[in-house]
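Continuing the series of single-chain predictions for the mutant panel. This is the parent chain; the variants come on the following pages.
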Amino acid sequence: MTLDQTMQALKAAGTAQTLKTYLRHGYPQDTFGVSFADLKKLARKLDGEHELAQQLWKTGNGDARTLATMIADSDEATPEELDAWVADVKFSLLAQMVARYAGETEFAEEKAAEWTASTDDFIGETGYHLVSHLALNDEELPDSFFEGHLRTIEKSIHQSKNYTKYAMNQALIAIGVRNPNLTKRALAAADKIGKVSVDHGDTACKTPDAGAYIRKTLAAVDETKVRPARPKK
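Parent structure:
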């Protein structure tokens, strides 16, 4: 599909109700309101079309940029392109999508270090969502990588900017369910941090209690391990 064909497909899939929801979550006015279910359908057709992803990103359209992160080829990513994309991030859902894409590239660890140190709220947010992605998906990274981020989160979360603060809390949870050693460290950090206040604007989003969420998640995992299998009918 060409850029024009893809944009037409996005426009046709958009709905007023989804657009209304997206705008409340910070999407730009230049957005069609395409559901993630429909974005995923398009992404399956266009997976790996890196040049198209670059073209979609340049449009500035909210749906097009989201789709770009879903179809871009992580093997063709460059540090410069990742930095250019993250500099354009101005709403939280896109921060999460750029983080997911960056997490599949060979520059993930490098960008996590750089972006989490940024004073720009959305770049910082993207960086900590990237840390979350790595905690949940990269089995090769040592505990020391995450221990360093835990120390930073514990020390600075309450002084951090709004969206960065939320992503820090999410990273704390992700690290806390990675393995027993990090669970212990994350729970200790969560207890010291206490309640984290984030302004979610005119949305139904809430900031979870990290310690309670970690414990609940691990309890659910333990339950599935011990629960006897149902007999076949």
